[in-house]
Amino acid sequence: MRIRPGTILLIFFAAILAGYLTACLIAPGHRIRRMNREGGTYTLVADAKRVPDLEFPDLAVPLREKAFLESRIAMAGSDSIGMSVNLRDSILALEINGIIIHRAKISDIRVDRFFSALNNQAYEGLFSRPLAVEREIATIDKEPVIVQKAPRDTVEALNSVFMPDTIRRIPAFVSFDLSGDLRLCLVDDGNRGLGRFFRKLFFYTRIRSRQAGENILSVLGMRVPTYTPEIRVSLAGEDIASIFRALYGRSLVAILI
Questions:
Q1: Distance from C-alpha of 72 to C-alpha of 78, rounded to nearest angstrom
Q2: Measured between alpha carbons, how far is 209 from 193 in angstroms, rounded to an integer?
Q3: Alpha helices, DSSP H only, in 50-148?
Q4: Strand residue runs (E) in 151-247
Q5: Which of 156, 160, 192, 219 gives 20 to 30 Å between its CA and that of 125?
Q6: Residues 91-94: contacts with CB within 8 Å, 24+ apart?
Q7: What pTM value is reported for the model?
Q8: What is the Cα–Cα distance from 53 to 56, expressed in whole angstroms?
Q9: What pLDDT is recorded for position 56?
Q10: 11-144+168-256 belongs to which homologous superfamily?
Q11: pLDDT category of residue 50 using cuts at 50, 70 and 90
């Protein structure tokens, strides 16, 4: 029986799709096992003995707080503005040299279950140093363009003092890809109108399409795709705009989950 070329193509694409879906499904578990193995299954305690990590679940809280403080201390050594994300107190702050210069209240938090599967040492190894922003996606401009008519003389220049418009018109959504293959998303918790819906749809479509492209390349190269766990926090759009525009280059981020 002769097989039609269309059928061969269909089988080929079905095989690629099956391989893609399988690779995406096993990627989270693969990364968790690798990080826990490389991070070790034992944790150092004060008396210098090595004890099984899972026998001391009460150590998780102080170890995570210690990692957060170490990360903030390291971030304070930089002259640039950094960001600290304290999910326990629902606070996102901008810091420079250890001094908080802006604080925003987080209204909603969504954390990938990936992080709860990490053992103490893997978590400490990931978050005991600040993470660097490697890539950004946003629905707002980094530097808003201001169009202003040039004054005809010095008198008009003195009289035309520019007052910035503080009314937010564009729903703010920002994604930071961090070193360590993590993603932090800042979501506007404001207006629930149609404009916000389409902005949000466009924002997540950009993120997912880029991730899908990277996953396809990994599958074609016979590699397990790199799973990128996500932390999503909701806060006021004005705070998102201020935070996004204050961070430049490879800004540093400290996180406490």
A1: 10
A2: 24
A3: 60-76, 120-127
A4: 173-178, 182-188, 230-235
A5: 219
A6: 92/186, 92/233, 92/235, 92/239, 92/243, 94/242, 94/243, 94/246, 94/247
A7: 0.76
A8: 6
A9: 65
A10: L,D-transpeptidase catalytic domain-like (2.40.440.10)
A11: very low
